[in-house]
Design a protein that fits this description.
The complex is a heterodimer of chains A (about 110) and B (about 120). With about 110 residues, chain A is mainly β. Helices cover about 0% and strands about 50% of the residues of chain A. Chain A has no helices and eleven strands. In chain B, strand 7 and strand 8 form a beta hairpin. The chains are: A mainly beta (about 110), B mainly beta (about 120).
């Protein structure tokens, strides 16, 4: 099975700060990587698909990048509404696997 | 607008069975692979099962943790997807989400979830 190692597990940042979350895949998954945001008591929402493509309706301050088997989600200027838990997902081969999550809080 | 509405969750005892359902609307259901994803209380997301489309012979895939106990199915005529859960264990307690895949197998659409609690 493909393992997705997500870091950090938690992160405290200030408004307008740049935030970066990473996921390391245990093997090549190409661009079959997506990012999700989950707010308390809510269903997850798709942010990024295909490693770098912005999902419909997602603010442009979110971006995704890839370097080999390392994938990153960047929030260029943190806003209050960005607080929540973020997950990566590999959908290259079954079983699909999520990263462990990153809890993003305001400093 | 796309809608996924789960139903059928509840409280069951260990070793019992439960079938949860998901009603889809707002997209061409028969063209979409469908999934179940779960989240135990206070924990992260876990992919559970996948069912492909008719041209792909409705192929199914399961997480190791549920293989042999859970069965995913779909009814394209009703735009419904189901998860039959047998021999339930306490560790199956979770919110179960129905999702539909989009580009690069990403989960573009999610339901609100249905809570399954396995406890004696």
């Amino acid at each position: 099975d493909i393992q997705m190692t997500q870091s950090p597990a938690s992160l405290s940042a200030s408004l307008e700060e740049i935030v970066t979350i990473t996921c390391q895949a245990s093997q090549d998954i190409g661009n079959w990587l997506s990012w999700y945001q989950q707010k308390p008591g809510k269903s997850p929402q798709l942010l990024i698909y295909g490693a770098t493509s912005l999902a419909d309706g997602v603010p442009s301050r979110f971006s995704g990048s890839r370097s080999g088997t390392q994938y990153s989600l960047k929030i260029s200027r943190l806003q209050v509404e960005d607080i929540g838990i973020y997950y990566c997902l590999q959908a290259y081969s079954a079983p699909w696997t999520f990263g462990g999550g990153t809890k993003l809080e305001l400093k | 607008a796309v809608q996924l509405v789960e139903s059928g969750g509840g409280l069951v005892q260990p070793k019992e069975s439960l079938k949860i359902s998901c009603a889809a609307s707002g997209f061409t259901f028969s063209n979409a692979a469908m999934y179940w994803v779960r989240q135990a209380p206070g924990k992260g997301l876990e992919w559970v099962a996948r069912i492909r489309t008719k041209p792909n012979n409705y192929a199914t895939y399961y997480a190791d943790s549920v293989k042999g106990r859970f069965t995913i199915s779909r009814d394209d005529s009703k735009s419904m997807v189901y998860l039959q859960m047998d021999n339930l264990k306490t560790e199956d307690t979770a919110m179960y989400y129905c999702t539909a895949s989009s580009r690069y197998n990403s989960f573009a659409y999610w339901g609100q979830g249905t809570l399954v609690t396995v406890s004696s």
